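Weekly puzzle thread! Below is a chain. First person to post its structure in C-alpha cell form gets bragging rights.
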Amino acid sequence: MKRHYLLGFLSAVAALALILAPITRGENSPPPAPAATDKPAPPPAAEPAKPETPPAPVAAEAPAAPSAATVTPAPQADESAKEPEAAEPPSKELRRLDTEVAPTAGDVHRKVRKAIKEAVRKHTVSHHTGNERVVFLQDILVEKDETVDQAVSICGSTTVDGEASDQAVSICGNTTVNGTVGAQAVSVLGSTTVNGSVGDQVVAVGGDVVVNGHVGGQIVSVGGNVKLGPDAVVNGEVVVVGGTLQKNPTAELHGNVQQVRLPAINWLFAWARSALFKGRLLSFESGTGWAWLVAGAFLGLYLLCALIFPRGIVKCAETLEQRPGFTILTALLTMLAMPLVITLLAITGIGILVIPFLVTGLFAAKLFGRATMLAWFGRRFTGWLGGGLFSHAVLNVLIGGILVALLYTVPILAFIVSMLIGILGLGTVVYTLILSMRRSAGQQSAKPAPAAAAVAPMAGPPPPVAGVAFAAGGAGESVAGAAVPPVVPLAAPPAVVSAATLPRAGFWIRTGALAIDLILCVLIIKLIPWVHFRCSLVLLVLAAYGAVMWKLRGTTVGGSICHLKVVRLDDRPLDWTVVVVRALSCFLSLFVVGLGFLWVAFDDEKQSWHDKIAGTAVVKVPKSVSLI
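Winning reply:
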C-alpha cells in the first residue's frame, strides 16, 4: 500500500511541476503576439533627394534596396495583427518545415501527463486485481485484460482468460485456461482444461486433462483420462495413472507416455468428488454405485444381527429410550477409556495378548450397536403402526437403515449422523451389559442366608439332660424340685464382612481415606534421601501400597481410620489377581479426568470404575470389628 501512495504522490508532484514550468522558465515560452489595438509600425521615411546626389540611375537603385527591406516587414506586421482575430492557440501556428523548432513547455507537459496517466491506469488495474487471488467456496475468473501472479480457489473453480504469471489451482473444482499461465495449472478432485498456453505442468488429481493448446512441460493425470485435441502441443511427457490417453492425429506430443492402469481408482475418485468432499457419504451421481453396494452389504449384516439376536437388539434399544442420559455418558466415557485401556495393556507386556481379543470385541460391539441404532430409528416410525409384526427387530432395522441411507446423502448431516450412530451405539451396548451385570448381582444378593447364620439363641431353659436326671432320681425318674443348671448364654456370632449385608461407603469418606494414604506415601518418599520426588513415582507407590494392603488386610491405613474395607461382590477372599487388576484400574479412573473416582458419587451401587472392573466394593465396617 505504501508503494501505491508513493507513486500517486510523485505523480501529483510531477504534474504540478510541469504546470508551473512555463511560469518559472520564460525562455521556453513563445514570444507574445501583438495585440489587435496596437498600431503597425510606420515604414522608415525616405530621405529627400539632394542636388549633390549621384545621377538618377544610381539614385534609383539606392532607394530600391531599402524599399525592399522596408516593404517586406509590413505584411508580416499585418499578418501578426490579424492572427489574434482568428483566436488560434500559439501551439497551432504555422511553422516552417525546413527548420527544427524546439518543443515548448506545453508539449512536454502534455506528453509527460499522458505517460503518467497511463502508468497510473496500469497501476490502478494491478492494484484492483491484486497479485494473488485466493478464495474459498467461490469461483475465480481472471478476465482478458487482467494479470495476476496466481489464482487459487478452494472448493471452487478457476478460469483464466487473461494471464496468471505463476499458477492456477483449484481444489474440489475445475481449472480452465483460456489465456496464459506461466507455471502450473492444477486441479485436485476436478478436471483441467487448457485452451490457451501453460508454461510448465498441467496436473489433475481425480479428474480429466483436456488440452487443445500449448503445454510447455508435462501432463499428469491421476484417476482420470488425458485428451489431446487437434491444436494440442505438448513439449513434455504425459503420465496417466488409472486412466487412458486419447490423442488426436494432428496433436503434437514431443515427450514419452507413461500409463499405469488402476481400474478401481476411478471409482474411488468419482465417489470422493461427488460425495466425500461435498460433505456426504452417498451420492446419486454416476460412478458412485459401488458405495451404495457397500452400504447395502453392511445393512445386510445388521439385519443378520437382528435376526440372530432379536431380544438383544430390542433390549438395547429400550435402554436408550428409557435411560438416554446414562447411555450418552457411558458412550462418551467408553470412547475416552478405550485408548487408555489398550495403552495400559500394552505397557504391562502380558496385556498385549489380550489386545487382539479386546479389539475384536469392540468391533463386534460397534456393529451390534449400529444395528441397535438402526432399530431405534425404525421404532420411531413402526411405533405408530402398533405391535405385532411391526415391532420385530428385523423390520425396525430395515426401516431405520433406509432412513439413515437417505440421511447419508445430505451434506454435513451425513457425517454427523454416522458419528452419532457409532458412538451412541457402542455406549448403548456397554451400558446394557452393565445393567445386566447389576441385575445378576442383585439376584445373587437376594438369595436366603445360610441356615447356620439364621439360628437364633433359645429364649427358654434348655431341655433336661438325661444324664443329670438319672443321677438325681434313679432310672427313669425325675426328682421334683431338683436344681436346674444355669443357662449359659450363647456368644454372639462374629460380624460377617459382606458386600450384601454391610452398607456401601460413599464418595466423601472414600476420598478422605484416599487422602490419608496419599499423605502417607508422600512422607515415605520424602524420607528416602536418594529418591527424587515425582508425581508419577507417588502414583506408582500408592498403587503398589494399596495392592499389598488390600491382599494382606483388606484395607489400607486410611481405610482403617475411616472403618472401610474392600470386599468382593461374591464374598470370596481377595487374591493377588483381583488386587493387581484393581490397582491398575485406578490409573484408568484417574487419567480420564478423575471420572472413575467421581463415579461413586452418582452410582447406585457406590462403585468406582476400578471396583466395577475388579468386581469389588468398599463397605463400612462397624467399629466393633477390628481391621488390624
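Puzzle host: Confirmed. Bonus trivia for everyone else. Residues 289-443 form one domain.
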